[in-house]
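To: structure desk
From: M.T.
Subject: fold request, one chain
Message: Could you run this one when you get a chance? Sequence is below, nothing fancy, just the single chain.
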Amino acid sequence: MHVTINGNQTELDDDSSLHQLLQQLKIAEGRIAIELNGEIIPRSQFQQQLLSKGDRVEIVQAIGGG
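Reply: Done. Structure tokens follow.
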């Protein structure tokens, strides 16, 4: 299925969860926020939140500096 991640079209397996997406993209679940179709998804729901064809996902990573 096709979903849009940070503005880029991506092909994913059907029934992929946000957690599986992060694994596929090699993104640690540390300091990130995910917006799915305009709604912020709590970290506690990453494993059970399934993606659907045409979903829009925005992933933001917090980066510390000094």
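Reply (cont.): The chain has a mean pLDDT of 92. Let me know if you need anything else for the meeting.
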